[in-house]
Amino acid sequence: xxxxxxSGSPRRREILMDMGYLFAILSPSVDELDDLSAEFExxxxxxxxxxxxxxxxxxxxxxxxxxxxxxxxxxxAGEVLNKPADLDEAHQMIRRLSGxxxxxxxxxxLLYELNDYRREEVVASDVTFNALTDAEIEAYFERVDxxxxxxxxxxxxxxxxxxxxxxxxxxxxMGLPREALSExxxxxxxxxxxxxxxxxx
Length: 201
Fold this sequence. Notes:
- By secondary structure, the protein is of the alpha/beta class.
- 35% of the residues lie in helices and 25% in strands.
- Strands 1, 2, 3, 4, 5, 6 and 7 form a seven-stranded mixed β-sheet that branches.
- Helix 1 links the parallel strand 1 (2-5) and strand 2.
- The longest helix has 17 residues, at 43-59.
- The chain is globular and about 55 Å long.
- The two termini are 19 Å apart.
């Protein structure tokens, strides 16, 4: 049984490696949703649909593999904050998050197309930011590249510079909730009777 990670995210790759799994990487080329819509009007529906789009695209090329796909967004006051287009937008996002609590949603999907196996889950974590000055935001951006991260920040680097508290899964904010994924992997192994490949180290 092969695992294919349908993502080019280095953070998701790091989490899966830390869990000890062996996997291939195939980054999907799909048009993702970039905002809430009438059909996907909640952050939960939004991230799940993007996870489906990525996973389904990769599974079409790897029907005999267990394809893991995921999507993460930041939700503040009913609005999703995805990856900023440029540094100006990144500054705007961090200013809005400053001193406030927001929710990070990650939706992930396990798809084994050969046997019509599909499981989906959404995990939410609440993050409270420090009240930040423009100088503190600049200092953070000197340390962390905000452009490839939902909400223009990453929790794994420079956390003490921006974050006051976290309620929920740390790895969920990184982009893949390790605890929930471990449970879903165990459920798949029980269903399939197969063990997922793991490193001997």
